[in-house]
Design goal:
The protein has 14 helices and no strands. It has 353 residues and is an all-alpha fold.
Length: 353
């Protein structure tokens, strides 16, 4: 086994985590250094003793409630979205498999570069086969979530402009740009004119692309076109689950603030939490460590929150992510155990095959 985790939830299309090259290891080490440096910078410039004191006095019942909100909003409801969207592709995964996968990805995001977690999701969706419809599914669900996050952040920023001034105007512009991009991506999935335009661009690019890439691109475009057959009711339901999931994502952070005795409005957290999340997506650190802390300390200072309290708030939110990652690790250990058990029962010829 070489200590590697299985990448499929079934025996079909068995896959392994790719071995890291020397360059991959160097980049990974660089991200660790960035995370340590940014986190060290935060600790150095705040009264870390006050941060630890705030964390030691955290109220556990609200923190547990925040964990439940975060789990339902970022693990369970996205599984409902995926399960519903999968039907247009012909792929079949049970809700239990999708929830387990979402937990597992939380684990891999902590221990591996984010691109690896996306690759794992791609493999799991397609039972080990990297197909255009699996990539289209990932693009669709991410575009829905990004549209929800960015559009609601833009609304919150409009309402908060009087308090934020110039900084609020800049962040509002960024939210609007991200919203437009998300709408553009989703248009190719849901509207015929946009799909026709995408097909036309693909056809014109084909002569200039290597055959393998051209085939994959054509497969992706065909998979994207399939989403136009979704009923308006199903499409609306997917967006509804995304909206409720986002609301629970923000409510989770609000309850964390209550657990710490901090005063911050839900409206403020709607855009602050969203922007910090987007910051952690940048491939500069490991699991967003350091970027998350800098983001919260900087953005919450616009509301007059002390750096020590903002850092405590950031670490408490990260603790929720670690809790979900632990559950994901347990799911992966179970898969590893089931794989080893199945391999031990297989004949030598089957194992070789």
């Amino acid at each position: 086994m070489g200590g590697r985790f299985p990448l499929t939830t079934t025996g079909e299309g068995e896959g392994r985590l790719p071995r890291l090259t020397a360059r991959d290891k160097l980049v990974f080490a660089g991200k660790i250094l960035v995370s340590v440096a940014l986190l060290g910078l935060c600790i150095h410039y705040v009264d870390f003793g006050s941060t630890l004191a705030a964390l030691s006095k955290i109220a556990w019942p609200p923190l547990i409630l925040a964990f439940i909100f975060a789990t339902v909003g970022t693990v369970v409801l996205p599984a409902f979205m995926t399960h519903s969207a999968m039907r247009v592709t012909g792929m079949r995964k049970s809700m239990a498999e999708l929830i387990a996968l979402n937990f597992s990805v939380r684990f891999y995001v902590i221990v591996l570069p984010r691109i690896a977690s996306i690759w794992i999701r791609w493999r799991r969706y397609g039972d080990g086969v990297l197909k255009g419809d699996t990539f289209a599914l990932i693009a669709f669900e991410r575009a829905v979530q990004m549209l929800t996050l960015c559009s609601l952040s833009a609304v919150a920023l409009v309402l908060e402009q009087d308090r934020l001034g110039h900084a609020g105007w800049l962040t509002l512009q960024a939210s609007l740009v991200a919203t437009v991009i998300s709408v553009g991506i989703l248009a190719a999935f849901l509207f015929r004119p946009a799909a026709i335009l995408l097909t036309s661009v693909t056809v014109r690019l084909e002569p200039f692309l290597p055959t393998p890439i051209s085939r994959r691109l054509t497969s992706l475009v065909e998979a994207v076109a399939a989403y136009r057959h979704m009923s308006p009711g199903r499409t609306g339901l997917i967006f509804w689950w995304s909206l409720v999931g986002f609301a629970l994502f923000i409510m989770s952070s609000y309850v964390v603030a209550i657990a710490l005795g901090l005063k911050i409005s839900i409206l403020a957290l709607t855009w602050v939490r969203s922007f910090v999340f987007l910051m952690t997506l940048m491939p500069l650190s490991i699991a967003g460590i350091g970027l998350r802390e800098v983001g919260f300390v900087g953005l919450l200072s616009l509301y007059g929150m002390a750096a020590e309290d903002a850092l405590a708030f950031s670490l408490a939110n990260f603790a929720l992510q670690l809790g979900m990652a632990v559950i994901g690790a347990l799911f992966e250990l179970r898969l590893l155990f089931l794989h080893d058990k199945a391999a031990s029962r297989a004949s030598p010829a089957e194992v070789k095959a």
